[in-house]
Write a structure and sequence with these properties.
By secondary structure, the chain is an alpha/beta fold. It is built from eight helices and twelve strands. It is globular.
Length: about 270
Amino acid sequence: MTTGTTAAGEAIVEAHSLEAAYGANTVLHDVSLLVPERRLTVLAGPNGSGKSTLLSLLSRVLKPTRGTVLLDGKAMAALPTREVAKKLGLLPQAPLVPESISVYDLVSRGRYPHQGFLKQWSDADEAAVDRALAATTLTALAGRAVDSLSGGQRQRAFIAMTLAQETPVILLDEPTTFLDLRYQNEVMDLIGSLTHDHGRTVVTVLHDLNAALQYADRIVFLKAGRIHTVVEDLDTCTESLIRDVFETAVTRLTHPVTGKPAFLAVPSGKAGAS
């Protein structure tokens, strides 16, 4: 098993010997992982490999049946909810949109962890929301109803809410689901900027392997509920690795603009044609 250590920053999220089960069915087996600071880590793998389950464990949404998640060296399970919410933000796969809520009001909800029992809305809260709107290029749409936005704009609004929480760590579950190619690129550009321009530590689940290869700093490949491989240098990602993880024939290309690897599935019956 590969844990994927790195010299790019001290890990502030750690998973040690995690297991998870739904009823009698164990879906994650002995997973240990270090999440380095200020880098974009992508969890990738086939359906049912345990990607979203691992993200749920890292965010404390799901309790492990075995093992520990540490946040800044402390067992996350023992930390107060408000303390976790000040350090770690989560955007689930299908967040609920309150009816007729404006973009500004949605983004403002990210400030809830900073609101004490008697604390009123402050200039610091206002500034945090304004920064989040600017970072996601939504300032001009702040007064619009969220349910009137395009898919890409709506996803940016939820990311802005997470940004307004001002946590050093952000976890995202399939942030490009149901988006067309234009909005996928738009959202992935934003996610990439969270680490490279805003210094956030980001872990995201992605089904789109080629998007992961173009944007990620590192990819954690899961298969059958275990970590298969952690790729720190994406240029080393090979056809044999992708074939083994996804159990399908692929051919490796080089992206003509980014120079990074990309993979195309080989149609059935064509795998041995070359």
